[in-house]
Structures are given as C-alpha cells and as structure tokens.
Design brief:
There is one protein chain. By secondary structure, the protein is mainly alpha-helical. The chain contains 5 helices and no strands. The radius of gyration is 19 Å and the shape is elongated. It starts with a helix and ends with a helix.
C-alpha cells in the first residue's frame, strides 16, 4: 500500500511539475516570438491554458494528499478529540463522495466532447476535460484513504510530514 501511495504521489507531483514547466515555456516562447521576432505564435496560448488546466487539478490532488486545502479551524479547535475524529472522517467522506460525483459527470462530459477539437491547434477538447477526471480521481482516493486512517485513530497529516522528512 505504501509503495502504491508513493508511486501515485510521485506521479501527481511529476505531472504538476511538467505542466508548470509547460506554462512557463509556452509563455516565455510567446513573449520572445511576439516582441523579439514580431511574429506571435498561435498555439502557445492554447497550450498554456491546457497546462494551466492540468496544473490546477493535479495541484488539487496533491493538496488533498497532503491534507493542505484551505481550512477554517475556529470552531474545530474548540472540540474534543472524539468529536474532531468524527468531523475528520465525515469531512473526508464528504469530499470523497463529492469527488466521485464530479468524476461521474466529468466522464459523461468527456464522452460527449469526444469529437470536439480546439480552434487553434485542433487538440481534442477531451484532453482538457481529462485533467478534471484524473485530478478528482486522486482527490477521491486520497480522501477515502484519509477517512479510513482517521477512523482507525491514525493521523494522516503527521504521517505525511514524516514521509517528507525521510
């Protein structure tokens, strides 16, 4: 299980790094082509948007894995240990369930857009939407794993921080 977890974590972080590099490369190339060569490239805008879309959902999956999404802890910190445990389990089950819902409707959208292509590069539109599926798959899996671990009395946050330090 740990080996699979590390592999998935590495894959999401690698895709995130690759897409961030893609954004920087496309924008830099567009700036050089537009201002130095006076000949703007058509495809860089579309591919930088594609990379941004993928980076958004890969980043959301990584944040879910690290349990580092935005939180409001004002009331949470006032509860006892048992109540916090129940809230953590319910929170992760809710996020996992909602992610499964997004996966279902996202898959329908991908299949509906199967023949559609982008304007400038003729890239299949499903490539853009596939980022949503892969990102929310990670969020769902990581959320359900965290819910199980919280229910067992483990602390996934502490374990993740230890794994980073290794």
């Amino acid at each position: 299980m740990k080996r699979l977890d590390k592999a998935a974590d590495y894959a999401y972080k690698a895709m995130l790094a690759f897409t961030m590099f893609g954004i920087v490369a496309c924008v830099t190339l567009q700036i050089i082509a537009r201002y130095a060569l006076s000949s703007p490239l058509i495809w860089t805008d579309e591919y930088s948007r594609l990379c941004f879309c993928w980076a958004t959902f890969m980043g959301a999956a990584v944040a879910s894995r690290e349990d580092s999404h935005l939180e409001v802890e004002f009331f949470y910190e006032r509860f006892g240990k048992k109540t916090k445990k129940v809230l953590d389990v319910c929170n992760h089950l809710l996020v996992g369930g909602l992610s499964c819902s997004v996966l279902y409707y996202g898959a329908i959208k991908v299949f509906k857009e199967a023949g559609a292509r982008s304007t400038a590069t003729r890239t299949p539109v499903a490539v853009f939407t596939a980022a949503l599926l892969i990102g929310f798959l990670g969020i769902a899996v990581y959320s359900f794993i965290a819910a199980i671990r919280y229910a067992k009395g483990e602390n996934p946050r502490a374990d993740y921080k230890e794994a980073i330090e290794e």
